[in-house]
Task: structure prediction
Amino acid sequence: MAFLGSVLRSVVAVGAVVLGVVAPAAGAFKVTVTPSAVRQGDVALIVVTGAPATPDMDGSVAGRPLFFFPYADGYAALIGIDLAARPGKTPWRIGFVDRAGIARKSTGTITVKTRRFPVQRLSLPTSLVDLSPENEHRAEIEAARLRTLFDTTSAERLWRGRFTRPVASAARPEGFGSRRIINGKLRSPHSGADFAAAAGTPVVASNRGRVALVVNFFFGGRLVVLDHGQGLYTLYMHLERADVAEGALVERGSIIGAVGSSGRATGPHLHWAAHLRRARIDPDALLKLPVRD
Ligand SMILES: [Zn+2]
Result:
């Protein structure tokens, strides 16, 4: 799942990196991305200013579409960089048709930087590691169900403004991207971040969204998936209980469940994950996203 990234080593603007500026003065537009240095697992905000109102803003990074929404006095889109994205330069393109009916575009490259993820070596009894054929089958079906969901892009952006922590706990989210070697065998990387919290601690929606899934999965246990629109999803796993039903629209900060240890969990904690289309992104990067309401 090699994915996108951002950063151009060219013209530096205040607090961001200018990806491309298109002259002439009549109708010049500007593209910026924040943060200015993008690593594997990051999520970046790409902002286009100086374009005429309500154009059919269109763009892509690494050939994958960007989904724009009106933002401040321009347009913005989120860029998700998968935790296993190939480091290096990635091409981007942005275009629209201006009021005079002239096609305008800007292109360039962005750079994904390597991020060093921790490696954990664990020795566990094989009974805890090797799944029965039934459970293996069940886990595969459940993983496919999530992939299908993440490939579904709702057109409307539901999230607004900054993302909030899903639990009222002082603990930092830990373990995103860590590579686990269990009994000498490399397992898939940890694609979420774990919050230590007591069982029963309320779990809240990180942002506005629609409840896309409330299920009980083999690995994730009781889990809730929120669809924030335009391909952005957040997942809340190992819940003791879920307090929302599929289809409900929830506001940022509203309670969706409680911390537990359901599924494959060694103790009560919240496994919180975020997907932007196929990119597995660090949910902590969402918390740092500098967006306005
Ligand atoms: Zn976890």
